[in-house]
Amino acid sequence: MSTESKTLINHIVEMEEDEANALAAKMLDEGYDPLELLSHCREAMDQVGSRYEQGEYFLPELMMAGEMLNEISGMAKPLIQQAGGEEKKESLGTIVLGTVHGDLHDIGKNIVTFMLEINGYEVVDLGIDVPVAEFVSAIEEHEPQVVGLSGFLTLAFDSMKDTVEAIAEAGLRDKVKIMIGGGQVDEAVMSHTGADAFGLNALTAVSLCKGWIGQEVAA
C-alpha cells in the first residue's frame, strides 16, 4: 500500500475531514483507481467501527465519517461510471434498504449503503421514514434477494415488525431475507420483528448479504 493510501486512511480514521477530502481529490486527479480508493475508505471505516465498538468513538464521529464517505464516494463514483459501468454488470445481488416509518435517522443506513455498494452489490435506497407499502412495492419492482430495515429509535422496532408482516401478507416473505439494524437491535428485537438476522454495523450487513446471496447462487 502506498504512503498516500495509508495517509488517506489515517485522515479518515482520525476525523481529519478537510485533509481526507483534499487528498482523495488529489489522488483521483492523478489517475488513482477509484475502486481501489473506495477500498481504502472501507478499510478506514472498519477502523472507525472498531473504535466505536470499543467506546473510543461515539455518534458524532460516526456522523463525520459518514460525511467523509459520502463526499469521497461522490468523487469516485462518476469515474467508475466513466470506465464503462462494468461494476453494474457484475453486481453480486440487489438489496432494498430504508429507514422504517417514524424514524428519520440515516447515518447508519448511509454507511451500510456505501459498504454494500463498494462490495459489489446494487442498493435500492428508499431513504428515511419509509412507509410499509413502499417497501412492498420496491420488492415487487426490484426483486431483491435481501431487504434491510434500519431504525435508531425504539419505536422503530414496531415499524420493522409492521413492515415484515406486510411483506408476508403480500406473499413476498419467502422470496427475500430480511435484516435489521440500528440503535439497540439484538436477538430479542429480531424475534419481535420477524426478521432473519440483525447487524450492529455495516460489516455485519455485508457479511449477511454475502452468506445469503452466495448460498442462493450455489443452489
CATH architecture of the largest domain: 3-Layer(aba) Sandwich
| CATH third-tier fold name of the largest domain | Rossmann fold
* Cα shape: globular
Largest sheet: 5 strands, parallel
Strand/helix succession: HHHHHEHEHEHEHEH
Q: What would CATH call the homologous superfamily of the largest domain?
A: Cobalamin-binding domain
Report the span from N to C terminus. 37 Å
Question: Which class do the helix and strand fractions yield?
Answer: alpha/beta
**Helix count?**
10
Low-pLDDT windows of residues: 85-89
CATH class of the largest domain: Alpha Beta
What's the helical proportion of residues?
55-70%
Radius of gyration: 18 Å
Give the tally of β-strands.
Answer: 5
Structural account:
The chain has 219 residues and is an alpha/beta fold. It has 2 domains: 3-87, Orthogonal Bundle (Methyltransferase, Methionine Synthase (B12-binding Domains), Chain A, domain 1), CATH 1.10.1240; 91-218, Rossmann fold, CATH 3.40.50.280. It has 10 helices and 5 strands; from the N terminus they run αααααβαβαβαβαβα. The chain has helices at residues 3-13, 17-29, 34-53, 59-82, 86-89, 107-118, 132-142, 156-169, 187-193, 202-218; strands spanning 94-99, 122-125, 146-150, 177-181, 197-199. A 5-stranded parallel beta sheet has the order 2-1-3-4-5, sandwiched between helices. Helix 8 (156-169) links the parallel strand 3 and strand 4. The longest helix has 24 residues, at 59-82. The protein is globular, with a radius of gyration of 18 Å. The N and C termini lie far apart (37 Å).
